[in-house]
Amino acid sequence: MPLIPQTVREQVTNQIRNDLLSGRFPAGTMLREIELAARFGVSRGPVRDAFIQLSHEGYLAYQANRGVMVRHPPDPRDREFITELRLKIETYVIERGFEDKSDESVNSVELALERLKEACDSGEASQVAIRDIEFHQKILLACGGDDLVPTWRQLCSRMLLTYTRLGDYSQAYKEHVAIFEPFRDGDMKKTVAAIQANIK
């Protein structure tokens, strides 16, 4: 499958997201358009667009008269609640739309699984986190959950700020294989059970 060329805005957004997930910018750090524009060798426009996108995703927050700040991870009690909400959304979408998935959408989930394996093999923490979420998003889209994905992504971004699977890549990959196989084979109950075992 040919790669789709990325725009400058997409490249900048992806790099800043990677930096956030890898810990390059600690929580509470104020990000400056002019500094990042100089780093990437671009105008401030793509950086500003990246800030907007990453704020929508939940990684950044605008501070009045200060600029853009890296959000703090959720309180452990809040994280438990966020995890429950994420599970409810994934379970609801799968149960509602499991029978509507197409061969093409199943193939897209399998491709996402392959990309997750590549990330796990590379050992790059931010990529493992991103590919983990990409895999789950492909399942939601396969089951017709397009309308709920934006809300779901907000929850995921909060969880990723305290991603707990880093360093345990082999097990993380096996858990996603355990999700994909019943999904591919048409077993909804096993798919949901495997997702519930994976999301922690």
Task: Give descriptors for this structure.
Arc Repressor Mutant, subunit A; 3 strands; single chain; 68% helix; mainly alpha; Four Helix Bundle (Hemerythrin (Met), subunit A); 200 residues; 3-stranded antiparallel sheet
Structural write-up:
Helix 4 packs parallel to helix 6, helix 6 (125-142) packs antiparallel against helix 7 and helix 8 (169-185) packs antiparallel against helix 9 (188-198). By secondary structure, the protein is mainly α. The protein has two domains: 8-70, Orthogonal Bundle (Arc Repressor Mutant, subunit A); 76-198, Four Helix Bundle (Hemerythrin (Met), subunit A) (Up-down Bundle), CATH 1.20.120. The chain has a three-stranded antiparallel sheet. It has helices at 8-22, 33-40, 44-57, 76-97, 103-122, 125-142, 149-160, 169-185, 188-198; strands spanning 30-31, 60-63, 67-70. Strand 2 and strand 3 (67-70) form a beta hairpin.
CATH architecture of the largest domain: Up-down Bundle
Q: How would a crystallographer describe the biggest sheet?
A: 3 strands, antiparallel
* Shape descriptor: globular
Order of strands, main sheet, comes to: 1-3-2
Q: What is the strand content?
A: 5-15%
Radius of gyration: 17 Å
Write the CATH homologous superfamily of the largest domain: GntR ligand-binding domain-like
The name of the CATH topology of the largest domain is Four Helix Bundle (Hemerythrin (Met), subunit A)
Distance between the termini: 32 Å
Q: Work out the count of structural domains.
A: 2
Helix content: 55-70%
Order of helices and strands: HEHHEEHHHHHH
CATH class bucket of the largest domain: Mainly Alpha
Structural class: mainly alpha
The oligomerization state is single chain
Q: Would you report the number of β strands?
A: 3
